[in-house]
Amino acid sequence: MWIMAPTDTYKQKWKPAISKKVVSTYFGTQAPNMLVWTFPVLFVAAMGSFYLHLGKKNSNQNDSQSDGRIRWPALWRRPVLVKGPLGIVSGLELAMFVMFIALLAWTLGTYLHRLPTLTAKVAAADGVQVWQLKLAKSALWIGLTGNVCLAFLFYPVARGSSVLPVLGLTSEGSIKYHIWLGHLTMVLFTAHGVCFIVFWAATGQISEMLKWSYSDISNVAGEISLLGGLALWAATFPRIRRNFFELFFYTHHLYIIFVFFFLLHVGIGYAFVMLPGFYLFVIDRYLRFLQSRTSVRLLSARVLPCNVVELNFAKSHGLTYNPTSIVFVNVPNISKLQWHPFTVSSNSNLEADKLSVIIKCEGSWTTKLDRMLSSSIERLDVAIEGPYGPASNHFLRHDTIVMVSGGSGITPFISVIRELIFRSKLSECKTPDIILISIFKSSLDLTMLDLLLPMTGSPSELSNLKLRIEAYVTKEKEPATDNSKRVRSVWFKPLPTDKPMAAILGPNSWLWLGAIISSSFIMFLILIGIITRFYIYPKDHNKNKFSTSKRAVLNILAIFVSIAATASAAVFWNKRRYAREAMQVQNMEGQTPEGSPNTMAYNGDRELESLPNQSLAEATKIHYGGRPDLKRLIFECKGESIGVLASGPTKLRHDVAAICSSGLADNLHFESISFSW
């Protein structure tokens, strides 16, 4: 349909034929776009949710069965571009990117192919010159091409959507697609706006900029939408995003202005072309809002001397997640609006009643959190959204896993190792060999290795794993002599109103999500059918004479009411059903232990000899004053399938990707874990 949309065949044959059958007194002239563009996507999203539910059920019964994800061939997932404006790009991603650019080129080219038909006679009928008419038409067609990008823009940021995991993607890994689409959207929409302003100035119609048409295109709404988008876009460039994250965070909320006035600009009838992605995003955003209303039960924290903190929350047994998942954390005492993503270090199998996150205290928000934890507070008010992560433990398929981390990039791998600790205890489960290559700046950073084990865990739990740790300290030539700083544990006294973390839609979240998507859309159709039949049609009679803005607002309200009603009902039902389990978790919490249960310290030797048990020490070798020879370490690994995971600074991930894509070994399967959020 996207290929056919710009053609005369679609405009002159297909759409009139569809309109003849579906335009009615209940859905008006917007019915064709609802049927062609909105319904199929929401149907796929709902069916995808049910499919993932069945896949999760099967994978829980047998890990060897399908989990519902599409599994792309290994060759397609191999990096083909490493250094460049697009970052690390796999063969599949490059193919999809080229196909999407081809779609944009086809769309714009098909429209521009009509330019020769704009003759002097046609221009004279409109009272303009030929070049002016061509400029106006080109501006329109550029805007229509930009709508193709906008239609896909919201899929990657719908964190809990079923569309991404069905395709084997994660929300965190798909953020780069949102970035690419955002740049393309704003380039095209900016060109669209500038061309029209030039046209109005050249034809003496600059007053058109102030036009708010009753039943046609509203220019003012389009200008407001574009200004909101430009302000948002300006704060997204890497230098601003990294150095002024709060500016980036707050300006990103201008998407509300951008989308709302876009709908008023083009009218709801045409907006149904881009609405499916935004519809799924609104469902996800509302569910996140409901989840964030609960104060989570914070039990304890481990404060490391390298400015790293591990927070431990109570969770219900029904909340399960996979390694490398992330959660978004809000601490109202620091900022009521800011939500920051952090890696989950715990494992839902190994620690059924606890969820842990690791925080590196570097920015202003995290520094304030570190000060609060150092001030002997008894309770910290925290809200959480998530967790979000991969749909399966895909790394288990490898014979050997090589994990390369830089600094706090080790945090995603902690959850992987804890999952393998759990698997190693199962007699029927074979675990891959593990090589952890960690690069740190100073000896103090070595204490992050303490977090490989849960707070109440024992190093002996590593005894069943084939684990080898190569730790590199780059800024020091020899071990530090100051061993006074140790891992410190902090225990909190949560209030009875603080609740254990739980899945917002319960253990069967995919099933409930499918029910919300389908039931909310049905409810929307009923509401808009009633509004159209008894309010709009008596005034309009499907002649498109009704207020475009009013129609758009009525449709937006109907969408929001439908989503809020169905999602709230689903959340309320699950809350009541699993309230008893939350109470049991609170009752099972023991008394606050005295002292720190797991305060490991490193001495100045190259081996970790001061641990309570030698399992971790024997697996670890520390190198001072240099960086690892990654190529040698990776190529030394044996096995038919070697998973290579890289996490940390961009340069490190690019170096590892270059090694895996060099073609010198066919058994390397690369995966980059970035902090794009």
TrEMBL record:
Topological category with respect to the lipid bilayer: Multi-pass membrane protein
Domain FAD-binding FR-type stretches: 291-394
InterPro entries named in the record: FAD-bd_8, FAD-bd_FR_type, Fe3_Rdtase_TM_dom, Fe_red_NAD-bd_6, FNR_nucleotide-bd, RBOH/FRE, Riboflavin_synthase-like_b-brl
Signal sequence segment: none
Alphabetic keyword roster: Electron transport, FAD, Flavoprotein, Ion transport, Iron, Membrane, Metal-binding, Oxidoreductase, Transmembrane, Transmembrane helix, Transport
Matching SUPFAM superfamilies: Ferredoxin reductase-like, C-terminal NADP-linked domain, Riboflavin synthase domain-like
Single GO biological process annotation from the record: monoatomic ion transport
Gene3D superfamilies linked to this entry: Nucleotide-binding domain of ferredoxin-NADP reductase (FNR) module (3.40.50.80)
Necessary cofactors: FAD
Gene Ontology terms, MF aspect: ferric-chelate reductase (NADH) activity; metal ion binding
Highest rank taxon of the organism: Eukaryota
Catalytic activity: 2 a Fe(II)-siderophore + NAD(+) + H(+) = 2 a Fe(III)-siderophore + NADH
Predominant localisation class: membrane
Transmembrane segments: 34-54, 86-108, 139-158, 179-202, 270-287, 510-532, 552-573
GO cellular component annotations of the record: plasma membrane
Pfam short name (any one): NAD_binding_6
Enzyme Commission (EC) number: 1.16.1.7
Record localization: Membrane
Similarity annotation: Belongs to the ferric reductase (FRE) family.
Protein name (database record): ferric-chelate reductase (NADH)
Organism of origin: Hibiscus trionum (Flower of an hour)
